[in-house]
Amino acid sequence: MNDYFQDSVFFGAAVSLIAYGLGVVLNRKTKLAILNPLLISIVATILVITLGHIDYDTYNYGAKYLSYLLTPATVCLAVPLYEKLELLKKNIKAVIAGIGTGVITSLLSVAVMAVFFQLSHEEYVTFLPKSITTAIGMGISDELGGYVNLTVAVIIVTGIIGNIMGKFVCKVFHITEPIAVGIAFGTSSHAMGTSKAMEIGEVEGAMSSLSIVVSGILTVIGASIFSMFLK
After folding, report:
1. Looking at beta carbons, which pairs linking 140-147 to residues 24 or more positions away fall under 8 Å?
2. Which tens digit of pLDDT belongs to each residue from 27-60?
């Protein structure tokens, strides 16, 4: 099977896109949060690779090209923010405070987990960028000496959990203010959370888009500081 697909430039990309399309269809038909398109695509892709006895390198030979779209897609999130720029200006202090608190909470939770589970320093720094977008998180993990591939997996899992559970958590804690909801999604679960925030409303989506950028910058600074602990 590897010999059949190893010369194909499009095999990995095709499998990824078809699997994601399947996830979108299932999610729209069932309306179940647990059937998240990204989660479904991950499971479907793993099944194809495993059952087909296909090496990861063979799959990634074509799938890697999809990664090139990651950064431009993240930049495009600035559009809804621009449309709500006046609202941002009126609430700038609360927005910055909310994002800053979210970043510190994320980093502290990783530090506590590292102590509780007695993680090595490499494992510890691998988890520090868990709540920010992959494009930034990979760079932080690599710079701090973490396991980049594991960081990517952790970021994806964090995003899926935020996408699935975020609305429920906001309901439990009676968080109804659109700006607060958007900041919560963007700061805790990056682009995956933002996609859910955009489904909820325009203001939520705009604030979540801003949170991705600001939390990414603050995490770069914060992770560098926190990485000096638990050596």
Report:
1. 140/219, 140/220, 140/223, 144/223, 144/224, 144/227, 145/121, 146/122, 147/122, 147/123
2. 889 888 888 888 899 899 999 888 888 888 888 8
Residue 218 near residue 98, CB atoms below 8 Å: no
Find how far residue 26's CA is from the centre of its chain: 21
pLDDT tens per residue, range 20-30:
999 999 988 98
Whole-angstrom distance between the N-terminal and C-terminal Cα of the chain? 45
Query: Among residues 192, 218, 216, which one has the least CA distance to residue 205?
Result: 192
Rounded Cα distance, 36 and 31, in Å: 9
Token couple for 73: 């897609």
How far is residue 73's CA from residue 94's CA, in Å, rounded to a whole number?
27
**Burial profile 42-56: b = 16 or more Cβ within 10 angstroms, e = fewer:** bebbeebbeeeebee
122 HSE (CA, 13 A, CB side): 7
The residue extents of the domains of the chain are 2-69, 78-226
Estimate to the nearest angstrom the gap between the alpha carbon of 14 and the chain centroid: 22
Tally Cβ neighbours within 10 Å of residue 116: 8
188 class by beta-carbon count within 10 Å (0-12 exposed, 13-18 middle, 19+ buried): buried
Who contacts 33 (Cβ-Cβ below 8 Å, separation ≥6)?
Answer: 163, 164, 165, 167, 168
Q: How many angstroms separate the CA atoms of 55 and 49, rounded?
A: 7
Which stretches of the chain drop beneath a pLDDT of 50? Answer: none
